[in-house]
Amino acid sequence: SSSKNIVIIPGDGIGTEITAAALQVAQAAAAQSGSSFTYETKQAGGAAIDEYGIPLPAETIEACRKADGVLLGAVGGPQWDHVAPELRAEKAILGLRKELGLYANLRPIKVFPALAGQSPLKAEIVSAVNILIVRELNGGIYYGARQEASVVNGVEQACDSEMYSRPEVERIVRLACRAAIGRKGRVTSVDKANVLATSRLWRKVAAEIAQDFSEVELSHMYVDNCAMQLVLNPGNFDVIVTSNLFGDILSDEAAVLSGSIGLLPSASLGDGTGLYEPIHGSAPDIAGQGLANPLGTILSAAMLFRYSLSNTQAAIMIEQAVEQVLNDGYRTADIFQPGFTKVSTEEMGRQVIARL
Amino acid sequence: SSSKNIVIIPGDGIGTEITAAALQVAQAAAAQSGSSFTYETKQAGGAAIDEYGIPLPAETIEACRKADGVLLGAVGGPQWDHVAPELRAEKAILGLRKELGLYANLRPIKVFPALAGQSPLKAEIVSAVNILIVRELNGGIYYGARQEASVVNGVEQACDSEMYSRPEVERIVRLACRAAIGRKGRVTSVDKANVLATSRLWRKVAAEIAQDFSEVELSHMYVDNCAMQLVLNPGNFDVIVTSNLFGDILSDEAAVLSGSIGLLPSASLGDGTGLYEPIHGSAPDIAGQGLANPLGTILSAAMLFRYSLSNTQAAIMIEQAVEQVLNDGYRTADIFQPGFTKVSTEEMGRQVIARL
Ligand SMILES: CC(C)[C@H](C(=O)O)[C@@H](O)C(=O)O
Ligand SMILES: CC(C)[C@H](C(=O)O)[C@@H](O)C(=O)O
After folding, report:
1. In this complex, do B144 and A159 lie within 8 Å of one another by their Cβ atoms?
2. Lowest mean per-residue pLDDT among A71-85, A150-164, A208-222, A226-240
3. Is B292 known to sit in a ligand binding site?
4. Do A252 and B224 touch (CB under 8 A)?
5. Fewest C-beta atoms under 10 Å: which of A111, A258, A336, B234?
6. pLDDT tens figures, B139-196
7. Whose CA is nearest to atom 11 of ligand 1?
8. How many angstroms separate the Cα of B296 from the Cα of each of A43, A307, B126?
9. Alpha helices in A233-275 (DSSP H)
């Protein structure tokens, strides 16, 4: 295949350190698998507000559109919390999702045996966790019409609207069904069909789409029940597919079950460039001190190789090296426990490279 | 005070057994505290569909309006899952909330030391859980305008709308602040203000209302973060106040942390009659066999004494008796473990009465 180009968006806080470490791992993994890629660095979030006055400069969008994949650190921080709403750092995230048409957010949530003890759940419950959450990322109440607080007939009120169309549901459920093949073949579609019209449409379309996948078993679950089952019986889930808002809540709930939120990657996919980022935030309080855990970003780079660079070999190589580094006892500050080897962000990256 | 009258709505599935047990406990507790009440039984849910053709007969609404309080078992079951949407059993619940103006759902989530071992969480995390979730129950996306799936410009789509007005937010936040006094004095207001206009109104109004409560410390949290913190650090929460939809999800998530969902009560309050019900469902699979746990309903009756019958003495009496019954080793099937005394629904009620 022709030469690949990726965009790195370090973002804010620990973003610079973790993307630097992940880039080095990615370059080493590419080389070892006989390939290579070029990259350019672009700004988004607070860093872009400071430099360009806006959180998502056109230049960044353009570069991302042309690239084969985007690796993002994290955006946001207290110094940008009080800017005007349309300039807030998270607009960069929402903007990128829309501009790049990233309609599917994939979050694999698995437990690293070496870290299972750090889960808030009992060992016997957490050991079986291996969930892929597929969150719709380009629609729903995130992008519906809104009425900011304003006085109507003497009463101050605000309004948001949740909208879903058949094609939006079809494409995300199809993606979830495809992802289930090669896993346990089970898809749980999560909605609130006993209350919401959008959920009733969602449920109907999901059932229709699943008919096309004879290897996939689809079931439906209410979001409140799912929030319970994730804690009670997380090992029962395989693939979960759900709306933008429910996915936001459930994927964060599911993430903490693993006990290793600093290690969890994500991929946001559409018809063009894919975007890859760890699920944790920009942690401004520990930025610049080498304390950040780069493994979530490194595993995001693995997803980038798999889904955007067609280099499954490099993806597997990285994933196995991360597992090995943990088994060998290396820990950044966030997951450190007595008896293990404490390493910096950079050193953790080097230890992964040494095991590729 | 004049003579009190309550309405009992057994509902479906195990509803009949658990309300029968709770009624006997309530009568005994009233007598022991030198009071009494009259009651009448009304239908709602599947039972009402079978008898009246609709899930919430006018007669039931009228009786509830006139009563001092309503004790409900649970509604719904598979035999009513395929009736027309407007006849579904949960319409009874949503209808009662609206007809009685029940704008506040209170769910105390505490851990019974005798049952803490049944929590999916590690003991050291679960032991500190003592949360009161205050969910807005009369507004938001539950009651906003909806467009059922229909073809618009050739595309099938559906729409729901979330609406909140200042008075709606004011009254629920005020109630949460009042509830926090006498607890730890901390209120966490949960929203998605980085995305939703309704959440931005909610956050602004909540901050204003909290100013009137100098003993209360208000903080704001995003719903996705709250879904994480409930699992990671549930002991850090005191009172949580949130919207109808977020409350639906978070209160069920929080409920399972305790390990004793069969014991959790709830109160739904408005300006008139209050409604009290356990948080679990109608469990049709075990109905009529004496297997159901009546303690959630019995503790709901305690809340009824406290909030609707001004009989705090009876409330405390019931709560202490339930704790004692558990400490004495009595268990219904759902919470039974070897070494304990297994009792039926009815017998569990009698054991509580014996300890009043
Ligand atoms: C920053 C915020 C708008 C975003 C979201 O709600 O989608 C975040 O919580 C996430 O999940 O990526
Ligand atoms: C039955 C359903 C409509 C209801 C709700 O969503 O409010 C239930 O989940 C609850 O929490 O009482």
Report:
1. yes
2. A71-85
3. yes
4. yes
5. A336
6. 999 999 999 999 999 999 999 999 999 999 999 999 999 999 989 999 999 999 999 9
7. A248
8. 54, 49, 19
9. 244-257
Report the separation in Å between the CA atom of A290 and the middle of ligand 2, taken as the mean of its atom positions: 46
CA distances from A248 to A134, A240, A245, A276, B224 (A): 10, 12, 5, 16, 6
Rounded average pLDDT over B62-91: 90
- A306 has binding-site annotation: no
Mean per-residue pLDDT for A318-334? 97
- Give the pairing type, strands B4-11 and B69-74: parallel
Nearest chain B Cα distance for residue A246, angstroms: 9
* Least distant ligand from the CA of A45: 1
State the Cα–Cα distance between residues B193 and A85, nearest whole angstrom.
Answer: 10
* Residue of A190, A191, A195 with the most ligand 2 atoms within 8 Å of its CB, for mutation: A195
CB atoms within 10 A of CB A220: 15
Instruction: Determine how β-strand A330-331 pairs with β-strand A274-278.
Output: unpaired
Last residue of a domain, which of A233, A260, A287? A260
Verify that A92 and A111 share a domain, yes or no: no
Kindly state if the Cβ of A224 falls inside 6 Å of ligand 1. Answer: no
Q: What is the pLDDT of residues A122-159, one digit of tens each?
A: 999 998 899 999 999 999 999 999 999 999 999 999 99
Among B231, B259, B287, identify where a domain stops: B259
d(CA A49, CA A46): 5
How, if at all, do strands B274-278 and B265-269 pair? antiparallel
| pLDDT tens, position by position, A240-254 | 999 999 999 999 999
* Set of chain B residues whose Cβ sits within 8 Å of the Cβ of A156: 165-166, 201
> Is B284 marked within a binding site?
yes
Residue B158: list chain A partners with CB under 8 A: 163-164, 197-198, 200-201
HSE of A144, CA atoms in CB hemisphere, 13 A: 23
**3-class DSSP assignment, residue B220:** strand
Is ligand 2 within 6 A of the CB of residue B93? yes
Q: A287 a known binding residue?
A: yes
Question: Which residue matches tokens 């950040």?
Answer: A292
Domain range for residue B145? 108-259
> Which residues in chain B are contacts of A163 at CB distance < 8 A?
157-159
Say if CB A193 and CB A226 are below 8 A apart.
no
Same domain? B155 vs B49: no
> What number of other Cβ atoms are within 10 A of residue A148's Cβ?
12
Q: For chains A and B, what is the number of CB pairs under 8 angstroms?
A: 166
Instruction: Please name which ligand lies nearest the alpha carbon of B141.
Output: 2
Nearest residue (by CA) to ligand 2, atom 8, is B248
Distance B11 CA to ligand 2 centre (A): 15
**Domain total of chain A:** 2
- Against a cut of 0.90, is the pTM above it? yes
Question: What's residue B2's pLDDT?
Answer: 62
Same-domain check for residues B281 and B189:
no
How buried is B58 (Cβ within 10 angstroms: 0-12 exposed, 13-18 middle, 19+ buried)?
A: exposed
In chain B, which residue's Cα lies nearest the Cα of A192?
B245
- pLDDT tens digits, A287-315: 999 999 999 999 999 999 999 999 999 99
Residues A161, B162: C-beta atoms closer than 8 Å:
yes
Distance from CA of B120 to the nearest CA of A (A): 6
Residues B44 and B76 in one domain: yes
CATH label of the domain that carries residue B44: 3.40.718.10
Beta B146-152 vs B155-165: how paired, if at all? antiparallel
